Amino acid sequence: MRANVRTSCASARRLSGTTTCRPREPVVIRPAGEPSFVVQIHDASTMHFDFRLEVDGVLKSWSVPKGPSTDPRDKRLAIPTEDHPLEYRHFEGVIPEGEYGGGTVIVWDHGTYRPTSHDKRNRPVPFDEALENGHATFDLHGEKLRGRFALTRFHGREEKSGSSARKPTWLLVRTGSGRGKSGGGSPDPRRARSARTGRTLRQVAEVPDSPTWDPNAGEQ
Q1: Which residues, other chains included, contact 122 with Cβ-Cβ below 8 Å and sequence gap of 6+?
Q2: Of 206, 178, 147, nearest to 73 (Cα)?
Q3: CA distances from 141 to 32, 34, 35 (A)
Q4: I need a labelling partner for 28 at 20 to 30 A (CA). Which of 110, 145, 168, 203 fits?
Q5: C-alpha closest to that of 94 among 18, 216, 208
Q6: Contact of 219 with 213, CB cutoff 8 Å
Q7: Mean model confidence pLDDT for the chain
Q8: Dihedrals φ, ψ of 89, to 5°?
Q9: pLDDT digits (tens, 9 = 90+) for 49-98
Q10: Mean pLDDT throughout 152-157?
Q11: Residues 6+ apart with CB under 8 A from 72
Q12: Are 143 and 28 in contact (CB under 8 A)?
C-alpha cells in the first residue's frame, strides 16, 4: 500500500520531534524524450548511495559508497549492481529485514539525463554502447545534481591478473566546471532529505505506514 505523504510526514514530525519535515511532491521538469535517473540513499548492511540510469527499459545501477559529488576534483567509486525495474525509481520506504537489500531507502535526487558521449570523430555514440565501451558522459537535470558527469570503467590489478571474479569497478565524476544546486562535495546521508517528501532516513523508518518493496511484486 502506498503511504499517504501528508499523514506520513505528520507522523514523522510527531515521532522525531522535528518541525522541518515538509511533505511535498516537487515539480520536476522532464524534457520530452529524455530518460530518467534517480539517486537513492540506502541504509542497508552498509550505508550507501544507489545511482541509477534508465537504459533500454531498466534502471542500470551502481552502488556509490560515498555518494555522487558535485566537486569535479572528487572521483567516486561506483560498483555495478543488478538492474532494477523502472518503477523502483519512485520507491521510498523500507525493504523488510531478511529480504535482499533489507533497510530504509529515500529518493535523494531524481530527474532526467541527456547522453553526450561522442567518438573520436565527434559522432554521437548510443548510450548503451558507450557503457559497453566503458566510458559514458551525460548531463543530469535533477533537483540537486545538474551538469555533466562521466562514468568510466577501470580494472584493478587483481582483475587484470584474473585472480578476482569481482565485477569491474567504475568511477563517477562531475566533469567540467561549476557545482550542483546542493553545493560542493557529497551530502551526509543521515542528514540528507528526500527530494520527494523532504524526509530523512530516520523519519521514513519511523513512519508505520511507509511503503515496502517486494522483489517479486514491487511496491506494497
Answers
A1: none
A2: 178
A3: 12, 10, 10
A4: 203
A5: 208
A6: yes
A7: 83
A8: -65, -25
A9: 999 999 999 999 999 999 999 999 999 999 999 999 999 999 999 999 88
A10: 78
A11: 173, 174, 175, 176, 177
A12: yes
For 185-198, give one letter per residue: b (16+ CB within 10 A) or e.
Answer: ebbebeebbbbbbb
Instruction: Indicate the residue type of 107.
Output: V
Percent of the chain with pLDDT over 90: 65
**Greatest CA separation found in the chain?**
59
Q: How far apart are CA 218 and CA 85, in angstroms?
A: 9
The 3-state secondary structure of the chain, one letter per residue: CCCCHHHHHHHHHHHHCCCCCCCCCCCCCCCCCCCEEEEEEEECCCEEEEEEEEECCEEEEEEECCCCCCCCCCEEEEEEEEEEEHHHHHCCEEECCCCCCCEEEEEEEEEEEEECCECCCCCECCHHHHHHHCEEEEEEEECCCEEEEEEEEECCHHHHHCCCCCCCEEEEEECCCCCECCECCCCCCCCCCCCCCCCCHHHHHHCCCCCEEECCCEEC
